[in-house]
Fold each of these.
Amino acid sequence: MVRFALLGSLVLALVAHASADDKKDVPKELAPFQGTWKVVKAEVKGMAVPEKEFAAGRFIFEGTKVTVIEDEKSKPDVGTFAVGNEKEPFTIDLVQPDDKALGIYKFDKDGKLTMCFATGKDATRPKEFDGKNAALLVLEKVKQ
């Protein structure tokens, strides 16, 4: 059984609060990410993760900082994110001082955010959103 903890460590469980200055200086390519997102679907190496494993999962994007909360019991870690949107698939990197998760992303017409991250230390950035050799996450923005 695949635990959401695997996803949390894979995509770097991250928590931070951005200052007001960080929010007003957000580059336009990061603007669509800003806010809190809940995980509505997760898949690892082509296998669906049961909803109970990710139901409390949240990503919070504030400025260039990102938060991934696994559940109410887990202690989150802090990191940053960067995107590249020159060509499709668009790229996303989640960065901690000692680690980096390489992924791709897209915003769907229904407003959902789909991200796909490489798995394993020597893995290369995914080229497709199939999740067969990666961790695939679908997020939905939380209304505030």
Note: Residues 4-10 form the longest helix (7 residues).
Amino acid sequence: MGQPSTGKLAANVGEIAREARVRAGLTQADVAERVGLATEVYGRLERGRMLPSVPSLRRLCIALRTPSDTFLGLNTGEVATWVAESSPPEYEEVPELRRLMRTLRKLDAGQLKLIGLVAAALQKR
């Protein structure tokens, strides 16, 4: 049995990742953050220009709730039990909130305090 070329495998991983990400309503930045990759690196992965390391592939499988066999083109039709498990609550947040949280993590304490005051004022409206 022949093995797929690295290029074909990278293209398959990228295509499956993109389809799963879109189906989940996530941005590339969302998935990159969950997998622990820079957004630019994740983008290269989706375009089929690179293969993830084994640890990154595992995190990608978890983040996109897709079995590794699917990424590797070895789909047996069986769904692994971990795929059916519920995702952590932060994965269910709306995209706008995920993007806001990424931005907030970059702010210093004073900036966060100011944002908190603005949010509290908006909440009272």
Note: The mean pLDDT is 83.
